[in-house]
Amino acid sequence: MSAPLLSLDHVTKRYVRGRHEIVALDDVSLEITPGEFVAVFGSHASGKTTLLRVAAGIERADEGRVLFASNDLTEWASSARRRGLHPRIGWLRRSGPFLPSMEMLDYVALPLLSTVSEPAEALRRATRALAQAQAEDLTRATWDELSDAERTYVMLAQAVVCEPALLLADDPTRGLGAGDRERMLARLRALADAGMAVLMTVPDVPDMLRAHRVMTLSDGELLVATAQQRRGDVIDFPRRRGGLA
User: Fold this and answer.
1) Count of CB atoms within 10 A of residue 230's CB?
2) What number is the average pLDDT over the span 133-138?
């Protein structure tokens, strides 16, 4: 078995709201290996987005450790000079370009501008990322011309254009119809099958059926579900802490 790419070791994250303390993550442990597609199910305010933000190093855990490629992300999360994402972590964002007239090829290439010196190379890699997201026919389209599903595919292309080892996707099927949801999940599964680790949060059980492994968050507590390898397997949620299964 491959060594873990991402490891959360007894992670707790709290927020203070007035006189109240909210425990968003409660002693969460989770390991994800390269090529694994993991889905975390949870209702609104269950801690799903916090889980991804801590896993990305955007927020610092109050307790426990977060390791990415065997390196502690604590320093990354706490450094004032490093407020962006780790270069090997991709995040499927839910926003479009600031300029409505920008073509999607240029929009997907934006994350490369700080690392790639040749514009032609950035555009070549953006074209490849759009093909990975099966959105190669959208290169010359503008944001206003896209459907909700097409916008999601473009955002997926931008999330993978820097060729991350880990992709984080917060409710990537939100607002999509049944057919487009299935196509989006198939794209994420294909990325995992090609070697990328994918951690996805979802609010609906059917959206987990493409994942290799499924879990649920409830009141900040991570519960492990039975592993599944094919569509149609029964999902069972035993009351067991942690995510090291």
Assistant:
1) 8
2) 94
